[in-house]
Specification:
- This protein has helices at 12-24, 53-60, 78-94, 119-127, 159-174, and strands at 66-72, 99-103, 108-113, 132-137, 140-143, 156-157.
- With 188 residues, it is α+β, with helices and mostly antiparallel strands.
- A six-stranded antiparallel beta sheet has the order 2-3-1-4-5-6, covered by helices on one side.
- It is extended and about 75 Å long.
- Residues 21-45, 140-188 are annotated as: Disordered.
- Residues 148-188 have a biased composition (Basic and acidic residues).
- Keywords: Chaperone, Endoplasmic reticulum, Signal, Wnt signaling pathway.
- One of its GO terms (molecular function) is low-density lipoprotein particle receptor binding.
């Protein structure tokens, strides 16, 4: 049994033990738990359309925080991006969507959603805006109304990889590859 100590003689370890004892008996409501400790929402498989993989993502992201990247078309300054995305955020707020906005570049912003189940509806709203170049959601890039002709490729997925592959192919086409050692030295 722990010794009875005067409260004025408690050190940090004693205070930590006391806090643990208090919290042990507390009933924390499910809504107050951090997101990673909450039980996942049950998925209704009758609502899943096998032809649309987005419907699966929509149901699995329901109730979870989700972020989407939005690019503003043209060559806006950071202030213009702030104003344009603020208008979009206001429109979404008026439609009862809880969205927070963070500017991350001169033409990029992050929209953070408390409930990821609404992400695809918000994405549809954003890509129909005149100044929206593209929206990136769950690794998929959706071109917007404001995208120029070179950007309007339907649903690109991580275009950086394809560029690297093309560069590697160009290099490999110029050099004959085999596993034999050669006497000639190649200059880099």
């Amino acid at each position: 049994p722990p010794k009875k100590k005067d409260i004025r003689d408690y050190n940090d370890a004693d205070m930590a033990r006391l806090l643990e004892q208090w919290e042990k008996d507390d009933d924390i409501e499910e809504g107050d738990l951090p997101e990673h400790k909450r039980p996942p929402a049950p998925i209704d498989f009758s609502k899943i359309d096998p032809g649309k993989p987005e419907s699966i993502l929509k149901l699995t992201k329901k109730g979870k925080t989700l972020m989407m990247f939005v690019t503003v078309s043209g060559n806006p300054t950071e202030k213009e991006t702030e104003e344009i995305t603020s208008l979009w955020q206001g429109s979404l707020f008026n439609a009862n969507y809880d969205v927070q906005r963070f500017i991350v570049g001169s033409n990029r912003a992050i929209f953070m959603l408390r409930d990821g189940g609404y992400a695809w509806e918000i994405k549809d709203f954003l890509i129909n805006q005149e100044r929206c170049a593209d929206v990136t959601l769950e690794g998929q890039v959706y071109p917007g109304k404001g995208a120029d002709g070179s950007e309007k490729v339907k649903n690109k997925t991580k275009p950086e990889k394809s560029k690297k592959k093309k560069e590697a192919e160009k290099k490999s086409n110029g050099i004959k590859e085999d596993n034999r050692a050669t006497n000639q030295r190649e200059e880099l």
